[in-house]
Each structure stands twice: as C-alpha cells, then as structure tokens.
UniProtKB/TrEMBL annotation:
Database matches in InterPro entries: Cu-oxidase-like_N, Cu-oxidase_C, Cupredoxin, LPR1/LPR2
Localization, UniProt: Endoplasmic reticulum membrane
Protein name: Multicopper oxidase
GO cellular component: a single term: endoplasmic reticulum membrane
UniProt function note: Multicopper oxidase that may play a role in the maintenance of inorganic phosphate homeostasis.
Organism lineage string: Eukaryota, Viridiplantae, Streptophyta, Embryophyta, Tracheophyta
Amino acid sequence: MVKGRFLGACLLLLAAALADGEGEEGKRGVPLLDAGRLEKFVDELPDMPVLRGYGVAEGGRLVAGELAVGMYDTMWKFHRDLPATRVFAYGASRETATVPGPTIVAMKGVPTRVTWTNHLPPHHILPWDRSLAAARVGNAAGIPTVAHLHGGVQQSTSDGHSMAWFTSGFATTGPHFSSPAYEYPNQQLPGNLWYHDHAMGLTRVNILAGLLGAYRVADPAAEAPLGLPSGAEFDRNLVLFDRDFRSDGALFMNATGNNPDVHPQWQPEYFGTVVIANGKAWPFLRVRRRRYRFRILNASNARFFRLSLSGGLRFVHVGSDSVYLARPVPTEGFLLAPSEIADVVVDFAGSKHDAVTLRSDAPAPYPGDPGEKADTVAVMKFVVGSKLEHDPSTVPATLMPRYPKPDTREAVVTRHIAMYEYTKNGTDEPTHLYLNGAAYTDPVTETPREGTSELWEVINLTDDNHPLHVHLAVFAVLKQRSLRRVDEFRDCMRGGASGGAGGRNDALACGMRRHLAGGRRHVVPRQERGWKNVFKVRPSTVATLLVRFKPLEESSATASGKSGRFPFDVTAGPGYVYHCHILDHEDNEMMRPMKIVR
C-alpha cells in the first residue's frame, strides 16, 4: 500500500467522523472516541467460557460432543470507562454470549457436532456494502452468516462455505446451504484452531461485529508428556484484534468507500485505534514468577502485530497455526498476520520488573512505505508477582518430531497463484483484488487430487503483504524470493500496462524465472518452517509452498481404509477455498474455489 492511498483513507475517515450520519444504525452527531482518553490496563484479562466438544459416557469413555452455538445480538463491555457496545456474539445462549466467543475444547479423534443458530436482527449494526459479490437476500431482511472452523480438517459440507450462509429462521439461504448442523471429526493432530463467520462479502463486518472464537484439539496422551504449562491458569488463549468506537460505545466502521462510485462503503483495510485482548481494551493479567503458555491468535481484519515483551523477556515458540513445531524456537519478537496463531511459552521467573508489557510496532497497513517506522503500541500488561515459586512445567528439547518432513519429490503438480490488485483509472485507489486474475464466481481452476502434494508458487504483484490461507490443507514454506523489474513482470502478467481482470496470467511465459534471477532470498523465520495453514506473502515476491492434500498423520489416513485418504469424502459438498485472510480483501474477491478430486 502506497502512502497516497493511506492518506486518502485517512481523509475519508475524517470526513466520516464529521458527517451527520453513518452506517445502518444512523449514528447522527455521535463523535468518534478519542482512544487516548481511555486509561490502559484497568480491566483484567478475562477467560472466555469453555464449551466441551466431547461427551463422557459410563466408565469414562469419550463420545461425540453435541453443541448448540448461537449468534446473538447483545451488549459487551470492552472497557471500564466505555459504555457497553452492541455486538454480534457466539454463545450457548444470549445471556452467555461473549466477544470473542466461548473456547471450544475438542479431543483428537472424537467428533464434535455443532448446530449453529442465527438469532441476529433484520439489519446489520455495521455498513453492509451490497455492491460486493456478497450474499444476496433480495428484498428479504436478515443477516447472512456461516461458521468456518479455521484449521479444521472436515468435509466441505461442514467447512463453512461462503455460499452456505443462512439468515435467522432460515428465511433466506445461500446456494450451497444444506444444514446448520456441522460435524468436526477432530481426526487431526493436536493444535490451535479458531471459528469465525465466513459469509461471502460479509466476513469483514460479521467478524468486526464479534463473530469469532477459539477452538482447541487436545491429545492428552501426546501432550501431557511434554510437560508444557497446563491448566486454566497457566495455559491461556489470547485473542487479539483492533477496533474503533464512537463516544457512546458503538462500534465504528467507515461508511464511505475509497471509491464510492464503485463500492459505496468498501475500504481496502480496516484499522482501529483500540487494541483488544480477549474482549477487553489493553487489559492486564496478574502472573506468577513461572512459565505460562499463550496461544495467541490475531483475529484482526487487516492489522499485523509485531509482538515483543518489555524488560528483555523472550518467547519460546512451541506451535504455529494448528500444528506443533518439531523443536522449540526462542525469539525476542515475531510478526503475526491476521488469522495466524503463535503458540508460545513465556517464563516470568526471569523478569527483573514487576510489570511486563506486551507491545507491537508493526506499521498499519503492513509493511508500510520503505523505511517507515511505526510507533510502538501497548497490547496488554502482565503484573508479575514478587515471589519466585516452584514451577513443575518445562519446555522440552523436542516437541513433536514424528511429523513428516516436507519432501518436494512428493509434488505431482506445480501451480502458479498470482495476487493482483486493480485500481480505478487515474487513481491509486483499489476497486477489487483477484487471485490469478479470476473472480470468485469464475469456474474452478484448482483441482488437487486427494492423497497428493503440490508445489504452489505464490506470486504477490501488489504492494501489500497478503496472509494466504488454504482450507483443508497444510503447507510448508520452502523459500521466498524477490522479483526483479517487478513492474515489467506485472505488466506482462496483466496483459499490458492497463490490463484488467483476466489478462495474460502466465508466469512462465512472462519470464518469472528470469525476474527471480539474482533477486533477494528472504529467510523464513524458524518458527514458521513447520506445517502451517497461513503464510505471509511479501510484496513483489514469489513464495514456494509444498501444499499437502492428505492427512498429516498416517493414522488418520488409514482410518479411512486407504493410505493418503481423509476419513471422509472430500469430493462431496460445495468444495473448499483458498484466499487472502485480510478480511477486506477476501470480501472483495481475493478468494478462489478449490475442488478436491480422487
């Protein structure tokens, strides 16, 4: 993103703040909140409610869990001094709904069945840009929603397909809707997932309104011997995102698009001035002088967090996204993209101070202009106890080394996935973003074969860093290289300097290898060299991924009766998708369908 585009967005934000009304709530004359007036570290970090995704039968045998999780229109208190905010929230009931929603704890190999129910009102509390290729309800009222379990390995009928949405009372349903009852087999390795809304064209506003929550797959037999910090006090989910508010507590999202004659309300990225952790603005947590485990999810629309700890404390990474690392990786700081999860251990026994601040210094938008340095902002504070105490936990030298190592010889196909941003003629203001020059509704072009692996060369021809997410699959990042003479290459890929959607989109014919020759090689951080489901693709680079369309653990595959097969029919249902996880990009068609074949 170039500076002119960012300044334009700032001016539009100012104009919206001074306007008489905004959004579908018509907040006339209510000024924006000055975030600097909110005192930091006055609210304690809450623990979200826990829903057990399994049942216990006679004799202690684990059986499938049956849950009903609703989406509710309710109120939530983000800060002591801010009036309660109207939100959309997940919960077992309206009274227990929270932002983020309850943490669902599942057991490996034990199915979790969730019936998702939509109790939302006829109209949205945030601007809904109907010019996007969004869910269509015609003249009917109601808010389309559909839940996706991010990182989950499940049949596409339970994957939360963006066109499988439904409104309250099923008054209107999407073309791929079949049932609100989803089954998550949990036949995958232990790790961290999250669930969130995935309705086409509404993901950014539905998640901004509060529809998100954490999900764990646990495997006590494999995890307990590791000796990592455990128990509710010492093993915590930490869900981060940013928001803006009006002075009356209402959520604020700019209702004026950067190209209002094209998209009346869509903005290319949403950034808020208030940092939220577990539903509270800049909270604090009292900790003892011992190790804690934090499963940190960036649930922001577009904000990257570059996290570090004050006082010289370090993180020790034990997992990335939904998979454990083979060995722990210590870092002084790390970059976390929207939808990425970092599973880390922090040892407060080594703190020289009685307070430690978790902070971020990532530019917004990321990576910003060359040489740009962002202000360091607080995320939350840890209040450290005075006494050193016995700590039975540890971080072992090896974690889960039995996972298969990436092997490029397994790849049966090499695909080129190009990222494009299109702007209005004569301006730098984007109108939409495509993958491989194709709209979301264009015919499927990616048809991986179950039980195989593929090489994906992901080509970022934009100025933004795009976190790529692939449903169902995991992948390993093999390398990332800068393109030389990128303008020349981009013009060829687009079919000329003024090329529009579609274009040539032929990486080999446009000389990708020649443009990579002599280009800089970017080091993939050690904590990101395992199996992942999200990766940050830098601007003007090509990232090479080994994408695995088969279970990561052979025992899960053999449960289906055939090696390399998933324990369900991957060909059934509407199929899967891959997309940029900047929600504002995803909603404006930076997403493509994917159909797995046998």
